[in-house]
Specification:
Elements: E1 6-12, H1 16-23, H2 29-32, E2 36-44, E3 50-58, E4 63-73, E5 78-86, E6 90-101, E7 104-114, H3 121-146
Antiparallel strand pairs: 1-7, 2-3, 3-4, 4-5, 5-6, 6-7
Length: 147
């Protein structure tokens, strides 16, 4: 059985490139992602971009550490990730930014997390959706300020 995912979209008053650039600046995450306590790039691609990124987030009851591997699609303004290591069993997802006119962008994110222990599906999906919604709201605020 594959990883169950949640998907959300939000309109951001910035260009797709501005949104994509903001999202790819991993070191800035603790400044605008409230759940992110620390972040560290642990490996880079030959072009200097972050490849593997270690993230420590404050989850509801404890800190969770994980390393994600990022893949970039500059043409489609899409950033995707897969799980490498950490305190969960699996995590994957992607963000994509599409122009909707008037310097507005539709930001869509799909993500899924398997915590590695049994959690009722409705609770797991609700927690993922709440986390995703907050993260997207914070990205919107950050990208609009930068734009």
């Amino acid at each position: 059985m594959g990883l169950e995912t949640v998907q959300k979209s939000v309109t951001i008053n910035a260009s797709p490139q501005q949104c994509y650039d903001a999202l790819c600046q991993f070191e800035s995450y603790p400044q605008w992602q409230s759940a992110v306590q620390s972040i560290r790039v642990v490996a880079k691609y030959p072009d200097g971009r972050a490849k593997d990124v270690e993230v420590v987030v404050h989850a509801v009851v404890k800190k969770i550490r994980y390393v994600l591997r990022y893949q970039y699609d500059d043409v489609r303004h899409k950033l995707s990730w897969t799980y490498v290591d950490g305190d969960v069993r699996n995590a994957e997802g992607w963000y994509q930014f599409k122009e909707v006119g008037g310097d507005k962008t539709e930001a869509t994110c799909q993500m899924g997390v398997d915590p590695g222990f049994w959690v009722p599906k409705t609770i797991r999906n609700t927690l993922t959706e709440v986390t995703l919604t907050k993260s997207m709201e914070e990205l919107k605020t950050y990208a609009e300020k930068k734009g």
